[in-house]
Amino acid sequence: MKTNNFSFNLPEHLIAQYPSDKRGTSRLLVANITPGSAPRMTHTRVEEISQHLPSGSLLIFNDSRVRKARIFGTNQKTGSRVEFLLVEETNDPTTWKAMANKSKKQREGTVYRFPQGVQGTIIGNDANLKLLQFSQPISDTYLDKNGHIPLPPYIDRTDEPLDETRYQTVYARADHTGSVAAPTAGLHFTPEILEALTAEGHTIAYVTLHVGLGTFLPVRTEDIEQHRMHTEHYSIPEKTAQLVNKAKEEGRPIIAVGTTSIRTLESAWDPRTQQLKSGMSKTGIFIYPGYSFQVINGIFTNFHTPESTLLMLVSAFAGLDAIKQIYATAVQLEYRFFSYGDAMLLL
Fold first, then answer.
1. What is the tens place of the pLDDT at every residue in 284-338?
2. By 3-state DSSP, what share of the chain in percent is helix, strand and coil, each rounded to 5?
3. Which of 93, 112, 146 delimits the end of a domain?
4. CA 303 from centre of chain
5. pLDDT tens, 29-73?
6. 299 in the same domain as 247
7. Going by C-beta distance under 8 Å and a sequence separation of 6 or more, which residues neighbour residue 308?
8. Is 172 within 8 Å of 185 (Cβ atoms)?
9. CB 342 within 8 A of CB 26
10. Nearest CA to 269 among 244, 302, 299?
11. Cα separation, 109 vs 265, whole angstroms
12. What family does the database annotate (predicted)?
């Protein structure tokens, strides 16, 4: 299957540059999928989601917290300002795998000055990433003070104070910090919406997947089968595994909130025991049309970028033709797209 099969035209003004005025008020497109038929679509608001879920649903959220991973250094020789995205820590607490702007110009041996007198040196390369060694360990405390929220490039502005709260889910755990992009489907939920879901008989559980290159790196191959996902770390609590396994036994629907929750659940499914495994691991799973889902029965997610692995994933669930119809309707009705945009519920 070709990557350009997943292309679509999107007017630039539909790319959300800011979140909705109030969390939970974004529009929600509910699509009921029947193979061989056009999807049945309903238009509502995220805060009304409980009215559209199957009774007794188990909803799985990703509680990873976004790291303030964008940090600016000054080239010690030229004085130029360089932006780095700290993607992943290495075993050495002073060294990170990082993306750099104008990457080809950032060569091994180049030294940079960072806030609070910290110095950093490029000591090598790791595939698409630079190995950036600092003069001291870089902690989340340091990044919280000196880093920036890693807004995606299609948000064409600098980060602002509102992003520190709105680009985090309300349930993100401080001890689960590690994502370099938000699990954006979860940005819509408020404590009140979560309480309403529970009050109406739904169950909520959490997994953790730290969003990295595997989630947002673009597909650069003509054939999607040739694309290779970067691995990302995840963990599943024993309680969540028990809830998923019980729901499967009882035939209750499992709704994944966001593509990262899907990839975590599908990666941890044991086909031998027909059970979800708890614990920590990492995944490079790539889900595209032809994949057979083992765990989930529905998806709550945002609208994704053209030719992305995320669009391929939802196409695997709903079918590419159905997704094209849903997206065409969303464009026609001027839904807002991407991280700060509106949402859809696929059932």
1. 999 999 999 999 999 999 999 999 999 999 999 999 999 999 999 999 999 999 9
2. 30, 30, 40
3. 146
4. 12
5. 999 999 889 999 999 999 999 999 999 999 999 999 999 999 999
6. yes
7. 6, 216, 218, 219
8. no
9. yes
10. 244
11. 41
12. Belongs to the QueA family.
